UniProtKB/TrEMBL annotation:
Coiled-coil boundaries: none
Protein name: Alkaline phosphatase
Pfam family membership, one: Phosphodiest
Alphabetized InterPro entries for the sequence: Alkaline_phosphatase_core_sf, Phosphodiest/P_Trfase
PANTHER family attached to this UniProt entry: BIS(5'-ADENOSYL)-TRIPHOSPHATASE, ECTONUCLEOTIDE PYROPHOSPHATASE/PHOSPHODIESTERASE
Source organism (scientific name): Phocaeicola acetigenes
Length: 300
């Protein structure tokens, strides 16, 4: 009798854990990612009200580390792929295909991304990725995304990606959308990191983040949405790719439905943990090959 009782208790605990793991934290996730956004800039920036609002209303770290080298394609891949260079195989600044064979391939013949595991486990979800750098499309598994699109010629039309995101969110109400800006990285390369031009551009991008947040409200999604902001890498002087903390440390900010008003968290976070957090929010199981882990402490 005692053994039966113990067995039933363990069974009920196991069932409750499975059900809890599968329960989404929010219906929608909006990821706003700024290429070349170094964490060093956040305390120095004087006029970023929307970023500051998210930090005050949610949780954040200024010590999320990139994988090495601290370059673009490698870290965008890690952000969406939940794994590091050695496993997903993208090793160069502009990688379009892995230079090292990916450890595992999904049904589309590429390393599993957050988009592909959402498609496989929750095909009813509508996903999107909008971007200014054309290289992004090679890293997300475009066959697994409901909609993806490039904002061309943003040097002459800097508001275009923001406008595309506003329109898509209000028209389609996606469950997961990643909006990837490239402008800050170009400012870092041209004018330099930690310069007045860099902070002017960050202020401009903060205004775009505010417009995207307003679009979420206009779409009637706000109360059931988690907003995340982060970056692929930082920079120093006019470059990146090295091993300085200015190049490697990036912000990660999360706020919204079921997120604590917890302020800065001290736990270690890596680039590939971003994908794991998104998987955790939607209650999907991440592939064994992923090494990322969700920052569960930021949730209620």
């Amino acid at each position: 009798m005692k053994k039966t009782f113990v067995f039933i208790c363990f069974l009920l605990i196991g069932i409750s854990q499975v059900l809890y793991a599968e329960k989404p934290k929010a219906k929608h996730v909006v990821l706003i990612a700024l290429d070349g956004w170094g964490a060093y800039s956040v305390p120095k920036a004087k006029d970023i009200p929307h970023i500051s609002q998210l930090m005050a209303e949610g949780c954040y770290t200024l010590k999320k580390r990139s994988v090495l080298p601290s370059s673009s394609a490698i870290n965008w891949a890690s952000m969406f792929n939940g794994a590091a260079t050695e496993i997903h195989g993208y090793t160069q600044w502009g990688s379009k295909t892995p230079e090292i064979p990916s450890r595992v391939l999904n049904k589309h013949g590429v390393f599993p991304t957050i988009f592909s595991i959402l498609q496989e486990q929750k095909p009813e979800l509508k996903t999107a990725c909008l971007y200014e750098w054309d290289g992004i499309k090679y890293l997300i598994d475009s066959l697994a995304v409901s909609h993806h699109a490039l904002a061309p010629d943003y040097a002459n039309h800097p508001t275009l990606l923001c406008e595309m995101a506003e329109q898509y969110i209000k028209a389609e109400r996606p469950h997961f959308i990643a909006v990837c800006f490239d402008q800050l990285d170009h400012t870092g390369h041209d004018a330099g990191h930690d310069t007045p031009s860099y902070y002017d551009k960050l202020k401009e991008l903060d205004s775009y983040a505010g417009r995207i947040m307003q679009a979420v409200k206009d779409a009637g999604m706000w109360e059931d949405t988690i907003i995340m902001m982060t970056s692929d890498h930082g920079g120093i002087k006019t470059g990146h790719g090295g091993i300085t903390l200015e190049e490697m440390e990036t912000p990660f900010i999360i706020a919204g439905k079921n997120v604590k008003r917890g302020g800065e968290f001290e736990e270690s976070m890596m680039q590939y943990d971003t994908a794991s957090i998104i998987a955790y929010i939607f209650g999907v199981k991440q592939p064994q090959v992923w090494v990322g882990r969700p920052m569960t402490q930021v949730f209620k």
